[in-house]
Amino acid sequence: MKRIYYIVSLIAALLVTIPLQAQENKSTTQQTKRRSPEVSRGERAKDKEKEDATMSDLTVRAQDLNERMTQQIGNARWMRIIYRQINLTEEQNAPLYYPTQPMNGQMNLFSTLFQLVSEGKVNAYEYLDGYEDFSNEHLVNLKDMLDRFHIFYEVQTKGKDTTFVVNDSDIPSADVKSYYVKEAWYFDQNNSIFDVKILAICPILTSDGDIGTTTMGMFWIPYEELRPYIRNSFIMTSNINNAITFTMDDYFRRRMFKGDIIKTQNLMNQPLQAYCPTPDSLKREQDRIEGQLVTFEKSLWLKPDSSQLANNTGKAKRVKSTATLRGVKASTAKETKLKVTKQPEAKKSESSSAVRSVRRRR
Q1: 339-347: Cβ within 8 A, 24+ apart
Q2: Mean pLDDT throughout 45-49?
Q3: Which of 100, 132, 251, 330 is least surrounded by CB atoms within 10 angstroms?
Q4: Rounded to 5 degrees, what are φ and ψ at 213?
Q5: C-alpha neighbours within 13 Å on the C-beta side of residue 249
Q6: Which segment of 132-136, 152-156, 253-257, 309-313 scores lowest on mean pLDDT?
């Protein structure tokens, strides 16, 4: 009897415990679901912090200015990605090349890039043949980059921190003689804007050897991360006017450089040289693409009909000529009338004398 009572009480306890546990699990699940938006917001905040980590040394004003100057192309209804190569040996692009060594507080573009990358202020991404991937998986390791391009450096260790020191004379500024520039030509229909945005730049290292001259793309740097630093780097842009009034950001934003098109983003991901084997065909293709960009911009704005404009011009000319003829006729008639009305008076003869009236007498 006692055993039966014990078994019944145990079964009753189990039946009461199982629903309570299920209810607790349900409440726990509901709390987790309620907290999931908070967790997602926290994750987004962490991602935002990672994005702003590269600009942490900038002032709040500089960060705000950079955000306001950022061109938003997410709403663009039309866009074309263009790749250009800037040759620094040309006079128009020389402001980015000289001085090759830091002098009087001035540095060329590559010295500025190298300093920012080595100090960790700007992220550099691997140069991949055919596409660009600006993700953390393709971040450039400074030591690997120095070893790959044979740049001499010294290792300094302070506790757990390791830094790589490169002398100014060892920076290959003189060997970087060209750049790749990735830009987006876009039309924003919401704001009625047709503009160009610089997306990224890539320095090209040129080395002369026994085999010949070889060129290698070093790394890509997003321009939005670079702009806050180069907008204070002043350069001389003319041999006639030596006043240093423009910055590197002005040089890119105002498109003061000269670059040849080497590729456009296409479905087959082919550069121009893949289907333009000769220099003449390459030049014609470059001119054709430039003409397409100009033609598209002109097609955006409404213009009057040329035939109607010609008819209006012809009518205006005819009306003007008729008015001119009428004016000439009127002036001629007026002159004739004046000539007729204003005839010279006849001169009195000197021999004539006054007539004296005599009254007859009867």
Answers
A1: none
A2: 47
A3: 330
A4: -90, 125
A5: 14
A6: 309-313
